Amino acid sequence: MKLFRTKKGIFLQHDSAVYQLEQQWDEIVNRDGLYNYLSGLIKIATKFNGGDWQHDLLPPIANQEVWAAGVTYLQSRDARVEESQTSGGSDLYNRVYDAERPELFFKSTPQRVVGHLQEVSIRKDSGWNVPEPELTLFINTDGNIQGYTVGNDMSSRSIEGENALYLPQAKTYDKSAAIGPCLAVMAEPISNETIISIVIKRNQQTVYTDKTPLSRMKRSLEELAGFLFRELTFPNGVYLMTGTCLVPPNDFTLQPLDVVEISIDGIGTLINTIAYNK
Ligand code: DO4
Ligand code: MG
What we know:
By secondary structure, this protein is α+β, with helices and mostly antiparallel strands. Helices cover 19% and strands 36% of the residues. It has helices at residues 25-29, 34-44, 74-83, 90-98, 157-162, 167-171, 221-228; strands at residues 2-6, 9-14, 17-21, 57-58, 65-70, 103-108, 113-114, 119-122, 129-130, 133-139, 145-153, 155-156, 177-184, 195-202, 205-213, 238-241, 259-264, 268-276. Strands 1, 2, 3, 4, 5, 6, 7, 10, 11, 13 and 16 form an eleven-stranded mixed β-sheet that branches. Strands 8-18-17-14-15 form a five-stranded mixed β-sheet, with no helix packed on it. Strand 17 (259-264) and strand 18 (268-276) form a beta hairpin. It is globular and about 60 Å long. Bound molecules: 2,5-dioxopentanoic acid and magnesium ion. Magnesium ion is lined by residues 68, 70, 132, 134, 153, 241, 243-244.
């Protein structure tokens, strides 16, 4: 089942039925057994028949931070090794790919996050910018994965490649994180065969497309969540982007008005247009 945040409130979609929920976002999502809780709500809730509820979608987030894992796929490691050759940072990426401890970094406060059909930004001081399509976990206060969304970890490869210590500037700026369109809550953990795909369009033409199964990820989702929760508490739960496998060729950089479409089986498609921040 899928939870949507909209300007009209919170909606739960299950099969072809839609229900409007009265509770606040944090209260709904931050619990163990979220799937069973929502199944129970459906039994007592009345179906929504009030028209176009999906029109004004907001990102599926209220008071959650967004964190991200990096270099969880071979393709990401190889791209970073290449981009940081002249800065001398290549070895860092080889080491972190093989290390027991994963790379985890702070990505965004909720206020800086955008949702489906909203604009994501590229930095004006960066000449090489890419989207990063990532399965994104919702993890509750107790550290248990309760749901999934589609994430875009917008990144400046020129800033990151200049010096690995610039990572926070390459990754964290206004509208650099997109999640949505919904929080998918599943009866079973997401399958390793799940496909993540991306299409980037410029003037309605596809300029880059690729896809990967989740099984190419080197680490398990529980392992990433476990490290995140080692010495951090999240009173409202947290989102964790799990790293990218899909890296456009080195001569590709995003331009304003490009449209990025990221799809993950069983969750949906997150579409964002590229812009500079005002
Ligand atoms: O180490 C740099 C960031 C890696 C990342 O964001 C990714 O692999 O997805
Ligand atoms: Mg990433």
